[in-house]
Amino acid sequence: MRRHYLKVGDKSLVGGVAVEGIPSCTHHGTALTFLGAQVVCPACGTTGRIVPKGPRWPDNMMGKEVALEGDLCACRCYPHPVMLASQDTMFQSFEPHELAEMGSASNGGPLKKEPLGDFDERVRVIDRDGRPLSGVPFHIKTKSGAVHKGVTDSEGYCPRVYTTNIEDLNIAIAYKAVERWSA
Q1: Lowest CB count within 10 Å: 67, 112, 118, 136, which one?
Q2: Nearest to residue 71, comparing CAs of 89, 56, 88, 91?
Q3: 146 bridge partner residues
Q4: What superkingdom does the record give (predicted)?
Q5: Cα–Cα distance between 106 and 54 in angstroms, integer?
Q6: pTM, to two decimals
C-alpha cells in the first residue's frame, strides 16, 4: 500500500485547497503540507485543517508531521472530505505485515482487535443535535499514560480504549486534540 505526500495546492474531494506548507520541504518546488495545515473549503465556506486518517510512518519534517493522501479536511462539511495528492512519486509505503503491526488491514482500514483489558470505554463525538461527527480529531490519554489518537469513524466513534484497571481518561477533540498530537 502507498500513501502519497500532500503539498500546497492539493485539494479535497469537495475542492478545498491546502494553503500551508513546510517551505524547506518541497516536491518539485512546491512545499509539502502537514497535519494541522489550513485548507480553504469552498463547499462549506470555512477554513479547515488537515487531520490524520489511516496508517503512517513517523515522518517529522521541521517539527511537523507530513500530511498524506487519504487524510481528512476537518472543516464544517459532513462527512469531512478526503484529501487527494496531486503527485505520485513521493510516498510512504507499507507491506501487509507492517500494516498489521500498526493495527491496520491491508487496505489501511482498522483491524479487529481482541480486548486488551478487563475495562473499556468507547467515546462518541456528536453535535448539538445529537448527530455523530465523523473525521473529528481526538486524543485520549489514560491515567496510566497510554495514548490513543486519530479521527472518529463514520459513526463518530473513537476506538475502544481498554485498561486492566478502572481509569480516568483525559480526552481532547478537534483543534485541542491536534495541538496535543504535536506536543
Answers
A1: 112
A2: 56
A3: none
A4: Bacteria
A5: 11
A6: 0.63
Cα distance between residue 14 and residue 16, in whole Å: 6
pLDDT digits (tens, 9 = 90+) for 93-139: 998 888 877 777 777 776 665 555 678 888 999 999 989 988 899 99
H helix count then E strand count, the chain: 2, 17
Residues 170 and 89 in one domain: no
Is 108 among the domain residues?
Answer: no
pLDDT digits (tens, 9 = 90+) for 14-56: 999 999 999 999 999 999 999 999 999 999 999 999 999 988 8
**The amino acid at 68:** L
What CATH number has the domain bearing residue 22? 2.60.200.60
**Range of the structural domain that residue 167 is part of:** 113-181
Residue 157 located in a structural domain: yes
Tell me: do 85 and 32 sit in the same domain.
yes
Whether 105 is covered by a domain: the verdict is: no
Domain count, the chain: 2
Q: Which residues pair with 26 in a beta bridge?
A: 31
In a shared domain, residues 41 and 83? yes
Q: To 5 degrees, how large is the angle CA 74–CA 93–CA 1?
A: 80
